[in-house]
Each structure stands twice: as C-alpha cells, then as structure tokens.
Write a structure and sequence with these properties.
The protein is α+β, with helices and mostly antiparallel strands. The chain has 29 helices and nine strands. 50% of the residues are buried.
C-alpha cells in the first residue's frame, strides 16, 4: 500500500472516533470526469509544479521591491481627468514647489532671545542644499541692514511687522509665534525626506528660547503617509501569520497541514503583489489592502478545500478522496473567485486613481490565488501527506451542536429574523444616503489630516495652524493673457483689485500674486501697503516690474518670464470639502466679473481655477459615486456569476441577503459612531460583498446537492458540509482585516475594524436570516428529524 493511501492504525482510529464529526460523502462523480482527470494530472505532476513555483517566488519578490511608494495627491485622480490635465499644464508654467511653515511659539514671540533663535535657525537652514527659508525678519533686515536683535531692535521690528497684514496673512507673524516659510527645491520622496530630516536636525541644534517649534506643511504629512502606508503590512503580517498558525493547528491539528497552507498562501501573496509591478502601479494610501485581501481570501479558499479534504469517508482511499474533494469544491470555489474578481474589477469605474488601481490589482491577485489553490496546494497536500479526519480528528463538537439546533430555530423565528434584517438594511441605507430634507447623507472627507493619527505632533501642529493662523488649502488662479500683457500696468492694476476682492471673502485667508511684491516694496518705502488705484499713479508704481523680477526670484513664481503671457494668484482658504471648494470657485468667478471683466485691458484674458486642493476636493466629490457605482456594478456581476451555480431566480436573490444586510448594517453603525466616508472606507462595500459571497455560493451549492430531500434535512446537510468552513472562513476574514487595527494609519485602522464587523454580521445572517428566508420561500414545515 502506498504512503499516500494509508489510513491511520485501528488503535489511532478508535482514539479519534469520539471527537470526529459525522463524515458526509460526495455526490456521484459521473458528471465530473474531466475534473477528475484534471486533478489526477495535477497531483501526478506535483514535483514539477512545486519546482515551477519555487522559481517564480524569488522573481516575484524582486518585482515587489521595484514598486514605488507614492502618497501624493496626484495619485488620487486618474490621469485623464480634465482638471488633472489642466493642473499639470499649469504646473509646467508655474511649478508648485513644496513648502513647510515653522512656527516658533512663545509667550512673548518678540523677545530678543526668540528672534535670535529664529535667525540662527534660518542661517542653519540656508546651509542645507535645496532649502530656502524666508521670514519677516529677512524682509526687515533688507530695509534696516544694521538691525540688532536687542530690546530696542526687537521693539522696532515688532512695529514694522505688525504695521501691515501682509506678514500676518502669510503666517509669518502672530500673537504667540514667529513664523518661517521654508521652500524645498527637491525632487522625489527620498530627497524630500532627506531635506526634512536635515531641517529637524538644524532646529534641534538651534537655541531653544521658543517653548515649541511647530512644523506645518504637506511635505511632512505626505512623508508620514508614505511611510505608514508602506509599512502597514509589516505590522499586520506577523499578527496574521500567528493567526494562520493558530487556526490551522486548532482546526486540523497537523503541522503538515499548516505547512501546506502557509506555503501556498505565501506564494499566492507574493505573486499577487508582484502583479503591481507588471501593471506599473504604485503603493498608495489604500494599496496596503491588496496583499491583505489576497491573503485573507486565498486562505479562506484553502480552508474550504482542506475542510472538504479532511472530511474523509470510510472505504475510500486518500488518493481518490483528494480528487473527489477537489472536484466537489471546484465549481463553488471557482464561481466565488470569479464573482470576487469581477467585484474588485468593478472598481475600474472609480475616478479615484488608487481605488481603480487597487481594484484591478486585487482582482489579478485573487485570480492567481485561485490558480495556486488548485495547483500548488494539492501538490503540497500529496507531498506532505496532510492527514484527514481518519488520522486526526477536527474540533467541531460545539459547531455540530449549534448546527443541529439552527433549522428548528430559524423556522420558528423566520418572520422576525427576515423582518429584522430588512429593517436594519433599510436603516443603513438611510444612514448612508440620507433622506432629502430630513436626514443628511453620511459625511464625506478626504482631508489629508484624516490620514494622520490625531495623537501625533504633525497632526496637532497642522490643526493649530488651521485654527489660529490660516487655512492650509491653496487654490491657484491661472490668468492667461496675450503675450507680453501679464506685466502691463493696467492688467496688474486689475489683478490687484481682484486680489483685494478675494481677500474680502470670509473663507479666504490670504491672496499672493504679482502685486504683492509691489505692495511690500511700497510698505518698505513708508508709503503704506496699498497700491494707488489711479491709473497714472499705479503705472508709476508698476513701471519697473520687469526689473523687479530680476531682483526678486519669488516674483518669477507669479509671472511667466518666458512669454509674459501667464500670471497666477495663490489663494489660501479655510474650507475643505467639495461644497466649500465650489463656493470658493463661484466666489472667484463673481469677483472676476465685478473687478475686471468689463475692463478693456482684459480683452482676451481668461482665468481658470486649478491646483492640488481642487483635485483633493474632486476626490471628495468622487467618493460617493465610487461607492454607489462600484457597489451596483459589483452586485450585478456577482448576480450574473450566481447564474452559473443556481437555477432558481429567487435563490439567487436570497443568496445576497446576508451580504447586503452586513454592508448596510455596518454603514448604520459607522453613522451612529460618527464615522465618515474616505478613500479607504468607501471600499468596505465592495470588499465585503466580494468576499462574503463566497459563503453564500458554497451554502447554496451544497444545498442544491441535497435537492429532493425535505428542506429541513437539506438544510441540516448543508450546514454540516459547508457551515463549518463558512465559520472558519469568516473568522479568518474578520481576524485578518482586524489585524489592521494595530496600524497607526487611521483610514486603514477604520477600514479593518469596520470590515471585520461586517464579516461577522454576514456570518450571523448566513445562519439566521438566510435560512429563515428560505423557510418562507419553501413554504415547508420542519420534518420530524429537525429539533
């Protein structure tokens, strides 16, 4: 007798008999001869299959290391979006440099010691390549070259800095701080991170007269997001690995079974992640979900296969039983994989770039996981001689007792269970989309601060700046003129009027443009910070603007020196959502109409609102459409996939009850707990639907195997064959995503906790609302064998 066909010795079998659950045989194989031949071939080629995968894994690991990490806003909008294209065209003329703001906070920020610290820090920063600091003190020193930061000098500087709102609006002075704007002339994330680290070291070496130095700016936030999103998997992978070991040993009580599962799982994840390199994708704020989703879903598939393999009837050799188990699970596993692949592939409709890439990436990974499950895993089962229940009993006693009671319970409570599930789903629908005029829809946000843990200093510093200094959101007003007209005095006078009108808007903190430098020069000359509006007087003030551009490099950031046909206004504002940005854009257009549209000098001049903040607002506006469109498409595709498994139209609809209930009830819980939709949480619906439908497909597939029996008996058979695997797979899914709760990246943490809860709710519905609905549909009463 071959080693692969041996069963346990009689004594060992007697030892396990008391703990072993009832074993359910397979339906006849007469309708699956091709599958039988296919899997016999797979098992016979087990050594070449293992060798091929052993060669593929190192290549996949190398490809995975080539995937870049990008958390910038340009990764949130698809490259073909018109606003994205316009912003990139604008940036070719006026590159949006990276900027950070340093706030030297003190009870009295005008003390000589604080001013000395600011100057020392500025000198240290000027020595860093690619770093250009700028303070109100720098401007004052140009006007007063002999300035000394003693008591008298500090008082004179204070009078100068507070005599205009130009410095306050730019965040360079405040009641409790001295500010420093730091421009970063760096390219790439590595150079940016090196510059930020050098800034931190310089600040540590400077005098410490200020009570605190706050660091504000997108470079700090983006750097942190890139690091956290890139290392998120390093935190949850070890936890998930421990969980896989624990559940495999608990369920199958075999190190050989554990080895087969771990090796197959590792190969599937490696190949799935490597797909990203082949597709040209990058690690973004949500791409950490790709390896986790592939890992969790593939593990659930392996558990379905292993649980069926363990369920070994007497009188059948291990070799034949392995072929039977694979053939029996091929259709439901394939159907569920196809449904999940289509579900995640449906995210291609999203206008949010990382979401679209994540969907396609995950779909490819799930498909590779399916290939691994039906090739490498059977080969390892054979090579490692993983035991069945005839050798090692599985732990299912508690489940068997619960499953025996479920048919009768769900029949007695059928109307209450179905009604309760529908009411919860309806309440979740209202919580998500609201009721016009009565209930507002769920809050939508894509604020970059939402991605940063509130306990961290960078979050607290950014929040302080928003509340006490200025807005952090920047709109760029692109002014296009005929060639040479950008420095025409009449055009500049109109832009100055437009700037003044924009600064009067409640949500606008500051406006910086070409005439800002003219106003600063006038203030330094002791003539106030307002430009004359008389055409002749303004013409004299702006007559040398072209020469001024040579002396003031900053001015060249607001006028295109090459053609003199483009100018820009930088508008700093406070609102941060799609509605707020829409109000700002509308206000800009109205101010344009009032200020300059009727001016003959502006014939042929056009304006366009562009910039990164506009793209962020557009992402926020795309969240709900992404959720609804992708969910609707996912549900439709999964419904079609069910056609290949189920014959009854009503059964196809019933199969989706648990998933729909779990998703909508989860959104209800999010709403009640103050949650909001963001780039990660909009993926909950697709992830839950694309994953939990596996359970319903396996449930209905085995329910059809019992066709012709009384419904109570068929339900008991289904619970015995597929129910245990559903429970195991659900706990795998829930625990796998719950591992994200250890992440310090808030969107992933929220996604993990909420998705885990949805998986558990889906399992509860699988065993309560779904059987109850089927009882109602069947119009049968329990047979005598149902307790």
């Amino acid at each position: 007798m071959s080693a692969s066909s041996r069963t346990a010795p009689a004594g060992r079998r007697r030892q396990c008999t008391g703990a072993r659950p009832a074993v359910v045989g397979f339906p006849p194989m007469t309708d699956r001869p091709r599958l039988e031949r296919l899997f016999r071939r797979v098992v016979s080629l087990r050594v070449p299959i293992v060798v091929v995968y052993a060669l593929l894994v190192p290549a996949a690991a190398w490809l995975a290391t080539r995937i870049p990490s990008e958390a910038g806003i340009d990764r949130l909008v698809v490259a073909t979006d018109p606003d994205f294209v316009a912003t990139r065209e604008f940036q070719k003329v006026f590159p949006e440099g990276q900027m950070v703001i340093l706030l030297f906070e003190a009870d009295d920020p005008w003390r000589p010691q604080v001013l000395a610290e600011v100057e020392a820090a500025g000198a240290a920063l000027k020595a860093i390549p690619g770093v250009v600091p700028y303070t109100a003190l720098d401007v004052y020193r140009r006007a007063r070259p002999g300035f000394t930061p003693d008591a008298a000098g500090a008082e004179a500087y204070r009078a100068f800095a507070t005599g205009t709102d130009l410095f306050r609006r730019q965040g360079l002075v405040g009641e409790r701080f001295q500010g420093m704007a730091v421009a970063l002339d760096v390219h790439g994330s590595a150079a940016r991170d090196a510059a930020l680290a050098a800034i931190d070291r310089a600040l540590d070496a400077a005098p410490h007269a200020a009570t605190r130095v706050r660091k504000v700016g997108a470079p700090y936030v983006v750097s942190w997001i890139e690091h956290e999103s890139g290392t998120a998997s390093l935190r949850y992978f070890p936890l998930f690995g421990l969980f896989v070991v624990a559940i495999a040993l608990f369920l199958y009580r075999s190190w050989r079974s554990l080895a087969a599962i771990l090796l197959s799982l590792g190969v599937a994840v490696a190949l799935g992640v490597a797909c990203g390199a082949l597709f040209g994708f990058s690690f973004t704020v949500v791409s950490a979900l790709v390896p986790l989703t592939v890992m969790v879903t593939t593990l659930a598939t392996l558990v379905y296969l292993q649980s069926r393999f363990v369920d070994h009837p007497q009188g059948v050799s291990v070799d034949q039983h392995q072929i039977d188990a694979l053939a029996n699970k091929f259709l439901p596993v394939t159907a569920s994989t196809v449904a999940a692949v289509l579900g995640f592939g449906a995210l291609v409709v999203s206008r949010i770039r990382p979401v679209r890439e994540m969907g396609l990436w995950t779909a490819a990974g799930l498909l590779l996981g399916w290939v691994v499950a039906f090739t490498l895993f059977p080969a390892l089962q054979k090579l490692l001689r993983t035991p069945t229940s005839q050798a090692v009993a599985t732990r299912t006693g508690l489940y068997d007792r619960i499953a025996d009671a479920l048919p009768g319970f769900t029949w007695r409570r059928r109307w209450a269970l179905v009604t309760g599930a529908l009411l919860a789903a309806g309440a979740g629908l209202v919580a998500l989309f609201g009721i016009p005029g009565h209930v507002a829809p769920m809050k939508v946000g894509v604020d970059s601060l939402d991605y940063v843990d509130a306990k961290l200093a960078i979050h607290q510093d950014m929040d302080f700046y928003r509340k006490h200094v200025s807005g952090l959101n920047v709109a760029r007003l692109w002014v296009k003129t005929p060639p040479g007209a950008a420095v025409d005095p009449e055009v500049l006078r109109g832009l100055d009027r437009l700037s003044t009108a924009l600064e009067a808007m409640p949500q606008v903190s500051a406006v910086v443009g070409p005439t800002t430098f003219l106003r600063m020069r006038r203030y330094l000359a002791g003539q106030g910070d307002r430009l004359p509006q008389d055409p002749e007087a303004f013409g004299r003030a702006a007559a040398d603007v072209e020469q001024l551009m040579l002396a003031e490099p900053e001015l060249r950031s607001f006028v295109d020196v090459g053609t003199l046909a483009n100018a820009q206004l930088t508008v700093v504002f406070k609102d941060f959502d799609e509605q707020g940005y829409a109000r700002l854009s509308s206000g800009i257009r109205e101010a344009w109409q009032r200020s300059v549209a009727a001016d003959p000098a502006f014939g042929g001049v056009t304006i366009q609102v562009v910039g990164e903040s506009m793209l962020e607002a557009k992402v926020a506006g795309s969240l709900v459409p992404t959720l609804t469109e992708s969910f609707g498409l996912t549900a439709g595709l999964i419904f079609v996939a069910f056609l290949f498994v189920f014959r009854s139209p009503s059964a196809r609809l019933m199969a989706m009850i648990p998933s729909i209930f779990a998703i909508l009830a989860t959104f209800l819980g999010m709403r009640l707990l103050g949650g909001e939709l963001n780039v990660a949480t909009i993926l909950i619906a697709t992830t839950v639907l694309g994953t939990t439908e596996n359970d319903q497909i396996h449930f209905f597939y085995h329910l059809q195997e019992a066709k012709g029996r009384p419904f109570g008996e068929a339900l008991r058979y289904t619970l015995r064959v597929s129910g245990r695997a559903i429970v195991f797979a659900t706990f795998i899914n829930a625990t796998g995503f719950l591992a994200l709760s250890v992440s310090s990246f808030p969107p992933l943490r929220q996604f993990g906790v909420v998705t885990s809860a949805a998986f558990l709710l889906g399992m509860v519905a699988d065993f309560t609302a779904l059987p109850a609905a089927l009882w109602i549909l069947s119009r049968q009463r329990p047979d005598a064998t149902v307790p």
